[in-house]
Write a structure and sequence with these properties.
Keywords: Membrane, Transmembrane, Transmembrane helix. It is a single chain. This protein is mainly alpha-helical. Helices cover 69% and strands 0% of the residues. The chain is built from 1 helix and no strands. It is rod-shaped, with a radius of gyration of 25 Å.
C-alpha cells in the first residue's frame, strides 16, 4: 500500500535517528541561547542610546 513508510522490526535501527534528533535539538537550544543573549545586549544598547538622546538638549 504505502512503500515509502518503513517501520523496522529491529528497534535498534531507531538509535541513529534519535541521536541525530538530540544533536539537532541541543544545537537549536544553543542557537536560541546565543540569539537571546545578543538580543538582550542590543536592547540594553538601544535603551542606553535612546535614553541619552532623549535627555540631550537640542541645538
Amino acid at each position: 500500500m504505502m512503500p515509502f513508510l518503513y517501520f523496522p522490526e529491529d528497534k535498534s535501527e531507531y538509535i541513529p535517528a534519535i541521536i541525530t534528533l538530540l544533536i539537532f535539538m541541543i544545537a537549536a537550544g544553543v542557537a536560541m541561547y546565543f540569539i537571546y543573549k545578543k538580543s538582550k545586549k542590543d536592547e540594553r544598547k538601544f535603551k542606553q542610546q535612546y535614553h541619552k538622546e532623549l535627555h540631550e538638549p537640542h541645538d
